[in-house]
Amino acid sequence: MNFEITRDYIDVGNSRPGVNLGDVEFIVSHDTGNPGSTAYANRNYFQNTQPLASAHTFIDDQYILEIIPLSEVAYHVRSNVPEDNRRFGVDANDAAIGVELAYGGNIDFSGAYKRYVWYHAYLLDKYGLDPSTDIVAHSTLDPSRRTDPQNALEPNGISWDEFINDVKQEYLREFQGEAGDGTEVGGEAVDLPIGMGDEGSFVREIQQNLMRAGVSLPNYGADGIFGEETERAVMRFQRSYGLAVDGLVGPNTLEQLNQVLNGGSNLNDFPLPSGIFQQGDEGPEVKQIQRALRHVNFDPKGIDGIYGPNTEDAVRRFQSMYSALANDGIYGPNTRRYLNMELDS
Fold first, then answer.
1. Which CATH number applies to 5-175?
2. What tens digit of pLDDT does each residue of 120-140 get?
3. Tell me, which fold does domain 284-344 have in CATH?
4. Cβ pair 74, 98 in contact under 8 A
5. For the segment 207-232, what is each residue's pLDDT rounded down to a tens digit?
6. Is 170 exposed, middle or buried (0-12, 13-18, 19+ CB in 10 A)?
7. Which parts of the chain register pLDDT below 70?
8. What is the architecture of the domain spanning 183-263?
9. What distance in Å separates the CA atoms of residue 169 and residue 181, rounded to the nearest whole number?
10. 3-class SS at 110?
11. Angle of helix 109-127 relative to helix 160-170, nearest 10 degrees?
């Protein structure tokens, strides 16, 4: 999966100082913080307004748009924050590429996210960087002021760790030649991931298994063509089971799908635990509560089996729907009863 990179540089000015960048030592991941603003809308803003800020690359569902040459400095992290120096021994603006994710509005998140992941993998390969250590969130470098790119990722069911894992897999698959030996299906090797545009018997099998797992494909069913309906179904499945939501059927999604089918459960079958669970609790029962909350659109921001502040907040938000429930963030028999009602509706 290779994407075109568009290079449409802004003029030298406040936003593009024209200063040579030193050796690239890491990548800083951002989001635009402006839902609905496209890659080109951001490019035009920096070209016309020329603030003392910028980034190298803006990505949406149509473009990977480099607006400042990667050989030049871009002002994408405050110079007086200490974390970049502590981690890398240098200011981010002097040694890092800034990559912005455009999201929200009419931007298709799946298309933008795929490009965002691929471009990070491309930069890792271009500069010989390590995916485990050399990608850092803007929020990590400037935590008192910034929440990106989690601000764009988490509402779409993707944690920072899941994003890094997606980049690692893309890097290994597309740039290191470690796409795997394929998955055996009917005695034949099938290369993963499977995604938009793929066709054949394996796609049909995936579609059939998605439907068996409770994910509907109302328009085309198991037609053997991986189109938009199938991609949406895969994303729904991934979101419900705490996987990276990219619409691609890779090893993790395939394994989870097989587990669901072998275990006899599906998206409409959540055996909610009895008892009382609250912040500090951990275990598979908490994970099941989290899956159920996500399924009824109260995202706990991760299916990790840890009843932390995000899970408590999700329970609280769910409880606020019903006057009969105490809005205390504690999962108990009454919350279980109403949650089961939502799952059955």
1. 3.40.80.10
2. 999 999 999 998 899 999 999
3. Muramoyl-pentapeptide Carboxypeptidase; domain 1 (1.10.101)
4. yes
5. 988 888 878 888 898 998 999 999 99
6. buried
7. 1, 177-190, 242, 262-271, 344-345
8. Orthogonal Bundle (1.10)
9. 14
10. helix
11. 60
